[in-house]
Design a protein that fits this description.
Helix content is about 30%, strand content about 25%. The protein has about 400 residues and is α/β, with parallel strands linked by helices. It has 2 domains: about 5-40 and about 290-410, Lyase, Ornithine Decarboxylase, Chain A, domain 1, CATH 2.40.37.10; about 45-290, TIM Barrel (Alpha-Beta Barrel). The strands form 3 sheets. Strands 4, 13, 14, 15, 16, 17, 18, 19 and 20 form a 9-stranded mixed beta sheet that branches. Strands 5-6-7-8-9-10-11-12 form an 8-stranded parallel barrel. Helix 7 packs parallel to helix 8.
Amino acid sequence: MAVESETMIDPVSAFPVQEKGREVCGVPLSKLAEKHGTPLYVYNGDFIESGVRSLQQKLRGSGTKIHYAMKANSHPPLLKLLASLDLGVDLVSFGEWKLAADAGFKAEARIWSGLLKKEAELRKVISENGVHAIHVESLPELDLILKVADQTGVGVRIGLRYRSGVDAKTHTKISTARNGDKFGLTEDEILEAVRRIKKSKRGQLLGLSQHIGSQILSLDPYRQSFQKLAKLRMKVEKSLGQTLEYLDLGGGFGIRYHKERPLDAVQVVALARKQFGPDIPLAIEPGRSLVAQAGVLLTEVVFLKKSGKDAFLILDAGMNDLIRPALYDSYHEILPIQAERVKAQKFTVVGGVCESSDVFARGRKIETAGKAGTLLGVFSVGAYGAVMASHYNAFPLAKEVLVRGEVTALHL
């Protein structure tokens, strides 16, 4: 029987309905919109903290370290909250490394992944001993890392990211371990990397990592990838002449945006323990599953445009603020923040960007009259929302607010 998942919660539960409409930590969302304007991202810090502590409790005794995948949301007050909860952090750029340092993540809590690592960036991070390990994604990258380590005279700890060839059976644009995907190293490349590290003066191989995709809803892809990783681990340890210090399982744990029935990270860890045994330390990299449902994008109806049989709600937020619907055809709940005594009507919900793909929903039933000035919420946007925003069409970036209790932290 499936474990009851933290991600099975209703996509809008972080923002319950009270007398004056939907609230966050006792603060009416309408008040935040009045104070800061729209479009506005609002994050429920109490909801995030509760979810993190629950996952930590469930994983206690499992030998598993949680590394937050910063690519999901890098809002500085949110990062400071997560750093205070004793999480590690998974980084995919030098910019994220700097944000992690500013937020208070200790060097030993940082893992640096990602394809792009420039020489000057590596020189600074290695010379400062600024990460626990660098996860390598190509042989040229490994050669550069070892060269910089020799030049700086500083030892470097390394993990090797494995591209297993497993299809995560998620959206094609967020699958990352198939043959032909740009990430990671094949088995042959990893064994070659081991040989190069053994020959180096200052390289130390700590572990193997994988990340097969995002918004994964089935255990099967994890099972397949763990079986392959287990075989590779044996070959690597034989070549290395010693046991590895950890295996990083990646993340990708899906959430409920609409009617999905997602996994819990605990199920994935339990599966890994069966495959890898009780002794080797494990790491996971949740991002979306920790923060997505804690976010709402507040946006105002500017116009109700009726054209033939179509009724368009034109919002002051667009694909420049939230690109997921345009990029992935993603579903997000869209609800009025203050209840209206009207029957649900069908609307096509759009932004003002000069692209036909700038659509949040087509033919969506929403309980609103759609009058100008109506405040709507686009829910489950705490991950891959503001971090993927742009200035396209010269629109300004939306503001972001983290709310905890009745205290807000605004970052412009």
